[in-house]
Amino acid sequence: MYFDTAGGPVFRPPSEANSFILRVTQGCSHNACCFCAMYRGVNFRVRPLAEVLSQIEAAKPYAGHIRRIFLADGNALVLATEKLLEILQVLRQTFPRLQRVSCYAGPKDMLKKTPEELVALRDAGLKLVYYGLESGDDLVLSAINKGVSAAQAIEAGQRIVASGIKLSVMVIAGLGGQAYSGRHALYTAQAVNAIQPQMLSALTLMLYRGSPLAEQFEQGKFVALSPAAIMAELYQMLSAVDLPADRYCLFRSTHSSNYVGLAGTLPKDKDRLLRELQAAEVQLRGLRDWDPYNNVE
Ligand code: SF4
Fold first, then answer.
1. Is residue 289 one of the residues assigned to a domain?
2. Is 133 in the pocket of ligand 1 (CB under 6 A)?
């Protein structure tokens, strides 16, 4: 559901397809990751409270149907905690059937919130945060210009989990290219082990024309992984993911960027998922004609 006149592209996670998308910002406050073209050309701004409230007002006639709300755009936690709390309060008052409010969040803004602030946000209705960890490797994080070290990226995720807000972590296979594939797999798994998110999604790197990473690829400075090598990297990553036996982590690799769809829970389904990755790797080995720009044109 979407009620807005702000303009510009609107992105939301696939699992928010039936949610009311409430834009509290436009664009991404970081907007510097070299692989990302989502909000390029969009001047970031925090929407004034009056604009947000008018969007909520426009959705009022549908209040009986709205159970989930996604706070867009790229990083809603950039808002001051007081403003977020005020918005969450209005949402609770306006939508009596509301079950969950969620948002994307970037590590720098997650780290700016104190543990007490995060608990207050949870109590006010923020139930789920989608976090693009991307990698747990310092070299990859630096190469993609994520703006944080691996230690900071891990701490950001841990803070959300500790607050009681559910955390959905996204990682990107192939993000380190051939140069960093092995360490990207290993350190990303170690970051996941340290964070212990409730959800883990593995996407595959897609090159977006005009992005700095695509330019590096075109200049021969970034060597992209083949589909089979992506499977091998994911296999290595998942092999090293080691969550406690009583943990229930929903694992998905079903994004349109993925060559093969994988779904299960960790650690329960790990062996089955590894077998499926192995079979996919064998199957894709013969694929000679592949395009790292796949799916985006
Ligand atoms: S933080 Fe997310 S939306 Fe912003 S530039 Fe990086 S990947 Fe893109």
1. no
2. no
* Residue 163: how many other CB atoms lie within 10 Å: 23
Is 203 touching ligand 1 by the criterion CB < 6 Å?
no
- Asked if the structure places residue 4 within a domain, the reply is no
pLDDT grade, residue 296 (50/70/90)? Answer: very low
The CA distance from 89 to 71, in Å, is 14
Residue 3 lies in a domain: no
Based on the structure, what is the number of domains in the chain? 1
Ligand 1 site, residue 106, Cβ cutoff 6 A: yes
Q: Is the CB of 30 under 6 A from ligand 1?
A: yes
Residue nearest to atom 5 of ligand 1 (CA): 31
CB 30 within 8 A of CB 108: yes
Pairwise CA distance, residues 198 & 30, whole Å: 25
How far apart are the C-alpha atoms of 85 and 47, rounded to whole Å?
A: 15
Q: Ligand 1: does its nearest atom lie under 6 Å from the Cβ of 33?
A: yes
With the most atoms of ligand 1 within 8 angstroms of its CB, the residue from 30, 40, 206, 207 to mutate is 30
pTM of this prediction exceeds 0.85 = yes
Q: Which atom of ligand 1 is the closest one to the Cα of 30?
A: 4
Q: In whole angstroms, what is the distance from residue 70 CA to residue 23 CA?
A: 8
- Cβ 36 under 6 angstroms from ligand 1: yes
What is the CATH classification number for the domain harbouring 188?
A: 3.20.20.70
Structural domain of residue 179, as residue ranges?
14-284
Residue 297 lies in a domain: no
Q: How far apart are CA 125 and CA 69, in angstroms?
A: 10
Strand order in the sheet with 68-72: 20-23, 68-72, 100-105, 126-134, 166-173, 199-204, 249-253, 262-266
pLDDT digits (tens, 9 = 90+) for 52-92: 999 999 999 999 999 999 999 999 999 999 999 999 999 99
